[in-house]
Request: fold
Amino acid sequence: MNEPTIYNILIIVWFVLAAAVFVSLFFFVAPYGRYLRKGWGPSINDTLAWVIMEAGSPLIFAACFLVGKNPVTFLSFIFLVLWELHYLHRAFIYPFTRRGTAENMPLTVLMMGFVFNMVNGYLNGRYLFTFSPGYDNAWLKDPRFIVGIVLLVVGFIINRQADTVLRNLRKPHENDYKIPYGSLYNWISCPNYLGELLIWIGWAIATWSLAGLAFSVWTAANLIPRAYANHQWYREQFPDYPVKRKALIPGIW
Reply:
């Protein structure tokens, strides 16, 4: 069985797994952060866990670029830079900017996240730099690329702004949860998740690929149930939580 065949089978399996994860996460919440609980085996410091969990994606994506068979173009380089900027931040900057006392992450969650990021890095990197027809400069003017990049940039801004609001809620070494206000937090509980969704929906449109679509579907499968859980948690923990605030989509849900 050759690599293209294995790749296509993996894409199909990846979509099926995303659907299963989406349903299951409405019944149990992944045990990290505020939902950390016993019964998930050994755990390690969550800062180290975040680094390990996220670092594989930029490494494997870069490797796919280096061994790719498609000619290197301005567009392929742009896709490389966008991916690497996001994941280098997620792996080596974000974990060290969070405030609060150190917590732990179960190794089972770490390994699931590590595999998730490695597979997504492989599927997207291998398609873009080897299996795709290639992206020439004409793609810069294609409406799909333009719309995708706009969504990606808007999502990035929303995500970074939301993370900044959350970070500023706590002083160094403070661990209490508080109600966030300002920006999109005035309308929804999880603008950071909304931003992340927009980033990868934008990526899927800009690359116009099944690999990109699979990643955006997986992102939704993980974050939509998590947003619902967070929204319910806020309402249970804070009697004065804004009644009109939705979970993820302003004015809708």
